[in-house]
Each structure stands twice: as C-alpha cells, then as structure tokens.
Design a protein that fits this description.
Keywords: Membrane, Transmembrane, Transmembrane helix. InterPro entries: Seleno_YedE (IPR026366), Sulf_transp_TsuA/YedE (IPR007272). This is YedE family putative selenium transporter. The chain is mainly alpha-helical. The protein has one domain. About 65% of the residues lie in helices and about 0% in strands. The strands form two sheets. The chain has a two-stranded antiparallel ribbon with strand order 1-2. Strands 3-4 form a two-stranded antiparallel sheet. Strand 3 and strand 4 form a beta hairpin. Helix 3 packs across helix 14 and helix 7 crosses helix 10.
Length: about 375
C-alpha cells in the first residue's frame, strides 16, 4: 500500500492517471458516447438532471453511469487507503450557488474543463476559446485567494454524512436497473431517456460504470483536478497537477488519431457552437466558480466520494443548475447561445465577484 501511495503522489503517478483518462475518454466515445464527449462531468450531470425529470430537454436525458462510478470508485479508494474522512459545514449555501453558476457557465460553452480539453484533442478549435476563458476565470479566482478569500474550514462530522452522496449515487444505479431504457419509449418508470441527440448516445452500461469506477479510484489517489492544475501553475508555479492535465490532452489526441476520431476545424463540430466570445465568457464564469469552490467538477465528485459533504453540496448545485439552464433558456446548442444565456453569464459573474470580494479574511 505504501508503494502505491508513493507512486500516485509522484509525478509519474499523476501523468499515468491523466494518460489513462485521456485514452479511456476516446474509447468511451468509440464505444458509444457522444463525439468529443467521451467524458464530460457537466454534460453528464446535466443528463442525470434530465433523467430525473428536473428539466425536459428531450435530447439530454440519461442516467450516466460514469458519474455514479466516479463517486463510488472514490469511496472505495478512500476506504482502501484509510482516507474516508466525513466532513462538512464550510459555507454550504455558497457552494451550492457556485455549483449552479458553474453549470450555467459550462452549458453556455457546452462542456466542463474535461470536455474542453477532449474537444481540443478531437480537433474542435472552438475549445481554444473555452480553455482561454477557463484560465482567465481561474486566474481571477487565484487573485481572490491571494487576497484572503476563504470559505472556512470544514468540521469532522458523522460517518453517515459522508455516506449520503455515495448512497444517492447507488440509488441512481438501482433506478437504472429497475427502470432500464425501453426501445422507443421516452420514459421508463420514473426515469426519462432520450430517443435522439447526445442523451441517446452512450456506451454499454457495464462499460461506462466500470470506467467510472476505475477513474474514481485512480483520481482519488492522485488528487487529479483540472482546475487545480491551472490554479497551482498560476499561484505557485507548481507543475505537478499540470503534468497530469497535459497527459490527458496528449493521450486523448493520440487515441483519437488511432481511432479515426480526430476532425480538426471550427464549423460543424459535435455539440459545439462558434460564438467565440460566449465560448470564452461561459468558461470564464465556470472557471471562476470552480476556483472559488476549490475544485473542478470531477474533483468535487471524488471528494464527495471520500466523505466531503461540502463537495456533495456543490455537485447538487450543478445538477440543479442544469435544470435552471434548460428550463430557462440559458444553455447553448449547436445553433448558438440560448435566449437568456448571455444575461445569465453576467448575473453569474456578478454573484461570483460578490462572493469573492465579501468572503475574505482581510474584509472582516
């Protein structure tokens, strides 16, 4: 166990995890997930929101097993290495609101940081603007961190609190097994299923679940985080997490080349739009929200799996944010930004800046 801990704590450990995620994401696309969306935490949480009927956008409704696997895999790793630490209580309402606006920003761009790099690795030039916005948003968040921004320390709590998010995800899996997709039917029992569009595209359930479990286990061990990689580079000039981030991009690109999935260009990219300013602005908002919350959407799932109740609140915020985004016309589509998406970005930025300026130790 000690040797395993040392490996994943080192540079080759984080590089190996990034490379593995990049290859597996390309393979999940090859096995049935949407193009340039082998793994997208925001998109998959949006699909879960739709599967539960929280929004009724018929093309994005599916209970994604990868997300379930992320949490349960992290739970298994945390127990295996004696790192399950139930904790909660650090500004939960703030984390929920940050989760809502992180999702809204991601759906204006059409992807989380994971999908941004996977879109780039698949040849989508629009992802360049999204990644630039992500870096800018995290940079603003880093400035707040330098000025004393802090959501406070979480407190140790009951073991049952740490188990709630894994139990919710296990419940989602049970619902999938009880109410499986029925050919030609948009609803099976209590769950909704897309008949067309991205929600109808998915790898086999067992493949997706196992992939999520393995990623959850490895990412929990290595502390893999796309937002953290950029933040550490900007704040401390540390490249440890960034090496895993770059490995993901490189190996996803190579896998896409081998699988014939690399298609460079800006126009006609799958589940993407060419409104460059709003690709930038959407991820600016998402990056700022991730930085203020302390982790990218994937990292929040892994922390929730290891007992962090505050991370679980952020995850629920993102799921609810997806419902707002589609019910209120905030989410983009290949045709462009939703009718109310631009206004939502400005509101989200105002809220995030309010949080950043007012929740600083130096401001008290």
């Amino acid at each position: 166990m000690d040797a395993v801990k040392r490996f994943f704590a080192g540079r080759w450990g984080i590089i190996s995890v990034g490379a593995f995620i990049g290859v597996l994401a390309a393979l999940l696309q090859y096995w049935g997930n949407p193009a340039n969306m082998g793994i997208c935490v925001a998109c998959f949480e949006r699909d879960i929101s739709g599967a539960l009927g929280l929004h009724r956008a018929a093309v994005v409704q599916y209970m994604r097993p990868e997300i379930i696997g992320f949490v349960l895999g992290a739970l298994a790793a945390a127990y295996l290495f004696s790192e399950f630490r139930p904790r909660a209580g650090s500004a939960p309402i703030v984390r929920f609101i940050l989760g809502v606006f992180a999702m809204i920003g991601a759906l204006v761009f059409l992807g989380c940081p994971w999908r941004a790099v996977l879109r780039l690795a698949g040849g989508d030039g629009n992802a360049i603007l999204g990644l630039a916005g992500l870096v800018a948003g995290i940079w603003i968040g880093a400035l707040f961190l330098k000025k004393g921004y802090n959501l406070g320390r979480a407190q140790a709590t009951y073991t049952s609190v740490g188990w709630l998010m894994p139990l919710v995800m296990a419940g989602f899996l049970v619902l999938m097994l009880i109410y499986p997709k029925v050919a030609g039917e948009p609803q099976s029992g209590v769950l909704f299923y897309s008949l067309k569009g991205p929600g109808s595209m998915h790898a086999p359930l067992v493949v997706s679940l196992v992939a999520g479990l393995v990623i959850g286990l490895l990412a929990q061990r290595s502390r893999f985080c796309t937002m953290g990689a950029i933040r550490d580079l900007l704040l401390f000039r540390q490249t440890h997490l960034a090496s895993g981030f770059l490995a993901l991009v490189l190996f996803a690109f190579l896998a896409n080349l081998l699988l014939g999935q690399f298609k460079p260009g800006f126009v006609g990219q799958p589940v993407a739009h060419t409104m460059h300013l709003w690709n930038f602005m959407g991820m600016l908002l998402a990056g700022l929200a991730f930085a203020l919350a302390g982790g990218c959407p994937g990292r929040q799932l892994f922390m929730a799996g290891e007992g962090d109740g505050d991370a679980a609140v952020f995850v629920f915020g993102m799921i609810v944010g997806a419902a707002f985004a589609h019910n209120f016309g905030l989410a983009s589509s290949p045709a462009g930004v939703g009718p109310n998406g631009i206004a939502a970005v400005f509101v989200g930025l105002a809220v995030c800046l309010f949080i950043g300026f007012t929740m600083r130790k130096t401001a008290r």
